[in-house]
C-alpha cells in the first residue's frame, strides 16, 4: 500500500473465515455438511443494521474487494476504486461485505479445501454449485451477521446474476438490487466459450481428472488457454485495437484506426509472437494460471451456464421478477459483447412488464465487458448518486 | 452423388495435380524449389481464354469446390450450390478453376508432403506462406493454363484477401475482383483468436514440435479445440440461438428469443454436455480434427495474421488500391462479427478514395461469417447478376 495512507482507502483489512456447521442442500441434490466462507468487511454496521451492502464477485473475483492486506501489499482489492470512504460505495455511509463464493479458491470451501468426509483435498469431488446455492449461503451469512435486510446487493457479470437471484428468491431481504453487465441467462455463444475453456482444462494431460494437486502438478497450459479465451471476450475489439495499436506507426494512415499496425516488430515467419496482442494474452494467461484453481474455474463457468432464475417461475423471467420487492439499478456498457446492453435491456423490459421500479444506465465505454471493473467516471458517479439516494431513504425510513 | 444426375451439377469431377519445376521465392526469404498444386476445373475455357474465373478458398477449403468425386460420393464440393450449369458462377458461361493453396493438406505441396530435399515429411519445416505467396503461385498456375487475364477472381474470408492481393499486385491479370466477407487486414481480436487456436495446437502433447506424423500420432485435442474456437467466431450469436434453441420449449416465453431453452436435457451437475451447443461444438471439432492437418492450420492462421497489402504501398490501403485496374464487387453480411460489414466498408471507402469502380452489397443474414458459404438468395442472386453482366462485357469487348 502507498507509504502515506490514502484518505479514501479502507486501509489495511483482514479477511476472516466464517464457519457454518449447518447442512447446505445444493441444487444438484448433494449436501455440503458444513462449509467455510472467507469474508471481508469495510465500514461500520449501524445500530439497526440497515446500512449493509453485499458485494458479489464475478468469475475470478473473491472476498478481497478493497484495501490492502499488509503495509507491503502493492495490489489493493479488486474493486478498490469503488469502495472506500467517500467513494461510490461509501464506507462512511455503508457497511460493506464481500465474500469468496463456495467453490472458490481463495479460502472458502472449494476444490482446494479438505473434504471433511475423506480427509483428502476435494478436487473434482467438490459438488457443482449454482448461483442459487451461492445466494443461499449468502443468506446464511446475512443471518450470521444479523443483517435482516441488505441496503443493497451489488455485483457485475456473474455477480450481477447473484443480485438477480437475491431479488427473485429473497424479496424481503434487500432494498436495492444493483445488477451490472449481466444477463437473465447465458446465450448459446456464452456457453460455447465456456465449454471451450472447460474442454481446454479437462484435456490438459496435467489435469489428472481433477486430482492434479494430489499428483503435485496443475493443468497450467489448459488453464492458461481458458483464460486467454476468456480475456478475448472481456475486451472489445476496439479496446484491443487501442491497447495494441502503435499510435506513432507509419501504417496509421487508413481511414479508420483499424489501420493501426499491431505488430510487435519484424514478422518472424514462424509461430513465435508477432503481434503485441499475442504476448499480452500469453502474459495474462500465464499469470492467471499461476494464481487460480482449475477446478474452481470449471465450477464458476458451470454456474454461469446453469443460471436461469426463470425456470422456477413458470418459465418467464418477468414472472420470476414478479416476486421481487426491491428497487433495481441495471447498468450495461456499450461495447460489452459478452453481456451486451441488449441483454440488460431484456432485464429492464421484464422488470417493467412485472411492474417493478427500475433505473437503467447504458454507459458509453470502449472497454468491453471489462468496463464493469474500471473507474469510468459516468458509471462510478451514477453508482455513487444512486447509493447516496438509497442511504437517504434508509435514514428517512428509520426516523 | 444423387442417383439421377442433377441438371445444374458439374457432375463427377477429377482433381489434377500440376507440378511446377520453377523456384518460388517466398515472402519469408525462403525458396520452394518446385511445388505441386492440386486443382479442379469446371466448364470450358473459350477460345480467347477470356472466360476464366479463379476461386480462392478460405482457411479450411481446398480445390474441390463443386461436383462429386465419384458416383458414391455423397458430399459435393464446398461451393457446389454456387458453381454449376445455370448457377451463380455459371459453368455454361465460365471456365472455373479452383485450387488447394500451398501449405494446404489436400494434395498441394504442404506440411504433409515429402520434402524433396530430405525425403522426409515436411511437417513443421514447410515454410510459412503468405497470401502474397499464394497469389504468386496462382499467377504461375494462370500462365500454365494460358490464362492472361481472369474474367474474375472470387473468394470469401481468407479467399477474399487473395482477391485483394490479386487486384493490388497483378492489376492487368483480372477484370473483376469479387471479395466476400473479408477485411483489409486482421483486427487485434482476429489475431487473438488465431493465437489461442495455435497455442492450443502447439501445446498438445501429441504435437511433437510438428513432427506428429513421423511419431505416428496427431494433436487431435489441440486441433479440435482450435476448430471449436474458430466455429464460435464463424457463427453469429443469433445463429447459435436459432440453431440450439428449442422452439417448442416451455421456456420460450421471454420477450425476446434469448429466452429459448438451450439445454439438451436435464442438467448433469457435472462437466458432461448439458447444452446442445456443447455437443455441436464437440462434433464439429472432432470431425475437423480427423480430416485436417494441424501444421496446415497453423500456416493458414499465420497467413491471415500477416495479410496487409498496404504495407508495400507506403502504408495506406487506398494507396495500394491505386495500383488496381479491375472492377470490384465487395460483399459483407450483417451478423458477421469475424469480418463485419464495417471492415468491408473500409475496403469500399479506400477503393472510392482511390477512384476505383466498386459495387457494394451488405446482405442481411443471420448466419454470421458462415453466411458467405451458404445459399442465401439475395447474395447468390446478386453474384449471378454481377457475373452475367461481366460475361456480357467480355463478349462485347471481344467483338
Which outline of chain A best applies? globular
Write down the oligomeric state: homodimer
Major sheet summary line of chain A: 8 strands, mixed
| Major sheet strand order of chain A | 1-2-6-3-7-8-9-10
What distance separates the N and C termini of chain A?
Answer: 40 Å
Number of strands of chain A: 10
Which class best fits the helix and strand makeup of chain A?
alpha/beta
Low-confidence stretches of chain A: 246-260
Number of helices of chain A: 10
Helical content of chain A stands at 25-40%
Radius of gyration of chain A (CA) equals 21 Å
Biggest chain-to-chain interface with counts = A-B, 78 and 78 residues
| Mean pLDDT across residues of chain A | 93
Proportion of beta-strand residues of chain A: 15-25%
Q: What would a concise description of this structure say?
A:
2 copies of one chain form a homodimer. With 399 residues, the first copy, chain A, is α/β, with parallel strands linked by helices.
Key features of this structure:
homodimer; 399 residues; alpha/beta; eight-stranded mixed beta sheet; two-stranded parallel ribbon; 10 strands; 33% helix; 16% strand; globular
Tell me about this structure.
Chain A is an alpha/beta fold. Chain A is built from ten helices and ten strands. Chain A has helices at 131-145, 158-169, 188-202, 220-234, 237-244, 276-289, 294-306, 317-322, 341-353, 377-398, and strands spanning 16-25, 31-42, 52-56, 83-84, 89-90, 95-99, 150-156, 174-180, 327-333, 358-363. Chain A has an eight-stranded mixed beta sheet, with helices on both faces. The first copy, chain A, has a two-stranded parallel ribbon with strand order 4-5. In chain A, α9 (341-353) links the parallel β9 (327-333) and β10. Chain A starts with 15 loop residues before the first strand and ends with a helix.
Amino acid at each position: 500500500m502507498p507509504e502515506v495512507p490514502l484518505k479514501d482507502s479502507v486501509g489495511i483489512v483482514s479477511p476472516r473465515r466464517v464457519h457454518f456447521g449447518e447442512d447446505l442442500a445444493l441444487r444438484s441434490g448433494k449436501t455440503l455438511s458444513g462449509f467455510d466462507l472467507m469474508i471481508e468487511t469495510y465500514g461500520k454496521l449501524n445500530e439497526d443494521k440497515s446500512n449493509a451492502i453485499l458485494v458479489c464477485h464475478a468469475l475470478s473475483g473473491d472476498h478481497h474487494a478493497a484495501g490492502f492486506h499488509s503495509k507491503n501489499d502493492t495490489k489493493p482489492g479488486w474493486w478498490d476504486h469503488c469502495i472506500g470512504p467517500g467513494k461510490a460505495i461509501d464506507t462512511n455511509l455503508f457497511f460493506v461485505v464481500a465474500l469468496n463464493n463456495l467453490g472458490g479458491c481463495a479460502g472458502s470451501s472449494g476444490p482446494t479445501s479438505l473434504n471433511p468426509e475423506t480427509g483428502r483435498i476435494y478436487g473434482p469431488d467438490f459438488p457443482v454449485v449454482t448461483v442459487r446455492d451461492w445466494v443461499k449461503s449468502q443468506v446464511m451469512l446475512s443471518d450470521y451477521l444479523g443483517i435482516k435486510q441488505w441496503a443493497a446487493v451489488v455485483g457485475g457479470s456473474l455477480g450481477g446474476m447473484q443480485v438477480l437471484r437475491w431479488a427473485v428468491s429473497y424479496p424481503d431481504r434487500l432494498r436495492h438490487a444493483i445488477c451490472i453487465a449481466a444477463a437473465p441467462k447465458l446465450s448459446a455463444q456464452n456457453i460455447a466459450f465456456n465449454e471451450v475453456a472447460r474442454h481446454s482444462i479437462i484435456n490438459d494431460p496435467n489435469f489428472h481428472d481433477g486430482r492434479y494437486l494430489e499428483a503435485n502438478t496443475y493443468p497450467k497450459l489448459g488453464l492458461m488457454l481458458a483464460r486467454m479465451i476468456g480475456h478475448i471476450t472481456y475486451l472489445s475489439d476496439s479496446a484491443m485495437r487501442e491497447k495494441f495499436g502503435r499510435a506513432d506507426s507509419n501504417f496509421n494512415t487508413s481511414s479508420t484506426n483499424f489501420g493501426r499496425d499491431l505488430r510487435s516488430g519484424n514478422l518472424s515467419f514462424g509461430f513465435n509472437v508477432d503481434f503485441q496482442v499475442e504476448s499480452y494474452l500469453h502474459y495474462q494467461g500465464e499469470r492467471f494460471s499461476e494464481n487460480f484453481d482449475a477446478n474452481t474455474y470449471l465450477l464458476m463457468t458451470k454456474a454461469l451456464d446453469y443460471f436461469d432464475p426463470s425456470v422456477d417461475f413458470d418459465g418467464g423471467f418477468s414472472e420470476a421478477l414478479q416476486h421481487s420487492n426491491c428497487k433495481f439499478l441495471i447498468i450495461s456498457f456499450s461495447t460489452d459483447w459478452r453481456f451486451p446492453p441488449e441483454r440488460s435491456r431484456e432485464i429492464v423490459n421484464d422488470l417493467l412488464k412485472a411492474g417493478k421500479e427500475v433505473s437503467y444506465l447504458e454507459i458509453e465505454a470502449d472497454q468491453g465487458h471489462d468496463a464493469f471493473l474500471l473507474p469510468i467516471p459516468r458509471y462510478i458517479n451514477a453508482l455513487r448518486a444512486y447509493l447516496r439516494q438509497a442511504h437517504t431513504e434508509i435514514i428517512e425510513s428509520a426516523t
